[in-house]
Amino acid sequence: MQFSVIIPVYNRPEEIVELLESLTLQSAKSEFEVIIVEDGSSISSREVIDPYFHQLDLHYYYQENQGPGLARNFGASKAKNDFLVFFDSDCIIPSNYFNVIIDEFEKEQIECYGGPDSSHPFFTPIQKAISYSMTSPITTGGIRGGKKKLDKFYPRSFNLGISKKVFNELGGFGTMRFGEDLDFSMRIDKAGYDIKLIRDAYVYHKRRTKFKAFYKQVFNSGIARIDLSLMHPGTLKIVHLLPSLFAIGYPLLVLGALFLSPLIWLLIFLFPLIVIADAWSRTKQFNVAILCSMASLVQLFGYGYGFINAFWVRIIRGKGSFHSFAQSFYD
User: Residue ranges of the Glycosyltransferase 2-like domain (predicted)?
Assistant: First the structure.
């Protein structure tokens, strides 16, 4: 197999260097080309990627800012190979990634695949904590590639592969700035194509570096879930409602502890303690486990309030689509 790796980038020259460096270490380096699409960045990555033109089959393009989905579409239009692989610019790729993919292709025909994400040992404690909250079954129900999950697996754009033929047939990514990868994956599924989860084809995903930026991200993810439910009826599941119930119920427990019974504090602290215990067993780092409890609360409240906000605006009031924190989408 020959692959075309497509990476949109916006104001992240340092991160794109880490990603490209990891691609130079691939044991199957000759099997892919790399296409970088600069999406209207004010801080160009062109200069920092120069050394990699001699190490990779690398191509660089610039477009005015249109969002990550359309940047990926532009990159796909320039691809010379028959299978497209999408990574986000804040990912680091394990050296055996393409060997894993090639092994899977030798076993069966694959039209589309997705893989999970993981935390690199050299990530900062906050990055490790955010990675935990976005991958733990406690906070996500395992729907992002876990062995046990509460909903169908849909590949995300940070680690997604699809044949060029199917990509072109479906028209690529849509114009959504949030949730565009889920919309695309849902359209793939609706079109009747098999989506394979390759658990060993994981990437290290740095995600956000501050809780404030993480809150903005998951808030918009909550909004996007309502948008997706309107675009794809039947895709909204109970697991998607749980953060909203948490965001409403947790403050009510605090009020109950303040005005009804101090014993309710036991329930309030139960969730953070469960997260800390689970995260400590996984990471073996107590300071990271503490941060994991904080990241999990940020995630659930952010997603839950975004979901509630969108439900009120789009379902109850019948207004059109919207998003928040658009100016800091890539932060």
Answer: 4-168
Q: CATH number for the 3-124+145-208 domain, one of 3.40.50.150, 3.30.499.10, 3.90.550.10, 3.30.870.10? A: 3.90.550.10
What span, in angstroms and rounded, lies between the C-alpha atoms of 12 and 42? 10
* Residues of the chain predicted below pLDDT 70: 141-151, 323-331
Query: Do residues 207 and 99 make contact, with C-beta atoms less than 8 angstroms apart?
Result: no
Residue 5 sits at φ, ψ, to 5 deg, of: -90, 125
Single pTM value for the model: 0.90
Please choose, from the candidates 125, 177, 144, the residue with its C-alpha nearest in 3D space to the C-alpha of residue 283: 125
Length of the chain, in residues: 331
Ramachandran angles phi, psi of 27, nearest 5°: -70, -15
Beta bridge partners of 7: 36
Cα–Cα distance for residue pair 219/226, rounded to 1 Å: 12
- The secondary structure of residue 316, as a DSSP letter, is I
Sheet holding 91-92, edge to edge: 91-92, 203-205, 117-118
Ordered by start, the domain boundaries in the chain are: 3-124+145-208, 217-328
